[in-house]
Design goal:
By secondary structure, the chain is mainly α. The chain has two helices and no strands. It has a single domain, classed as Helix Hairpins (Orthogonal Bundle).
């Protein structure tokens, strides 16, 4: 099943939102690293969330590039 059709403007708005979310997770990961060894147990979850945010952002950017 293919993804629903999205206009370039909708995709740009989505990318803006995804970019903000990815930046937030990046900063969470950065802050966590500065606090080590406190809360080291959170590393895998924060890293997974950061990875997922950047994967979604990369995919949205790829989709926008395909639209031309």
């Amino acid at each position: 099943m293919s993804a629903p059709s999205v206009s370039p403007d909708e995709l740009r708005a989505q990318i803006k939102k995804l970019s903000a979310q990815a930046t937030t997770w990046k900063m969470n990961l950065h802050d966590l690293s500065e606090e080590l060894p406190v809360n080291w147990e959170a590393i895998p979850e924060v890293a997974r969330q950061t990875f997922a945010a950047y994967a979604a952002l990369t995919e949205a950017r790829r989709r926008l590039a395909e639209l031309g």
